[in-house]
Fold ABC transporter ATP-binding protein.
Amino acid sequence: MATLVECDQLRHSYAGKQVLDGLSFQVRKGGIYGLLGKNGAGKTTTINILMGFLEPSGGRCRVLGDPSHRLRPETRRKIGLLHEGFTQHDFMTIAELEKFYRHFYPHWRPEVFTQLVQKLQVPASRRLSRLSFGQRSQVCLGLVMAQLPELMILDDYSMGLDAGYRRLLLDYLHAYAQEHGTTILLTSHVVQDLERLMDHMFIIQNGRLLYSAERGRFFESFRQWRFQRSPQSDRLEKTDVLTSVEHIGKHSIVCSFHDEAQVRQALLQKDAALEDWQEIPLGFEDAFLNLTGKY
């Protein structure tokens, strides 16, 4: 399977602050990839490097075979980008935007754009500046999808959108990827939206890759247990076995990628009493926060 994006030991800093610190990952052809992390983890900086807006201070990044800071015009035409904030030509009408963009992309599909934009139920003569934020996001996504890109990059596509617009975009993205075989790399602060969308996740923290796996494998291997709180459990700290430790009310809560027997053994070695022991199912957002830290 072809590798479309390859980042190897990426480093970048702003005013002496290290934002990316040896980030490495690969995006292979096919499927939907999520680049996840808390605010300040380095997601948008990574996207800017992928698109050639920034040259990394260290490491290597290739996109569709080209060095990311020297993308050829023919390579850029194969990449559909929806950048944070949906920046477009606000003074143009919906119809003018479609007419303007179509000349730059040899595989332009006007019906793809029209199908999504018609759901706005506003005239094509309406200027982008007169649309709501959610409506503008639909227009911008329609412009990206109509390009039939080989690689689609969506940076924080859900910013400022209500639940209805987020669901609409997710449904369209899923159907579009299945129909056209487009590879999608996206970031979002609303991680629970991605649970049913992405096939593979990259979780970054402090500019490094913290975790990488297929979505299903993450839920199979990352588990949570709760037991009665005690003075011994209050002294527990994170270890190679205990990925997270938290105390809420009368209970202590631990998460781990290890099996239950190993977790219990690690706790017993710290003299923690395991009364009222039970496994607590994890939703995707809870699992993400337990892995990256809630605060």
About this structure: The chain has two domains: 3-216, 222-292. Residues 163-180 form the longest helix (18 residues). The mean pLDDT is 90. The chain has ten helices and 14 strands.
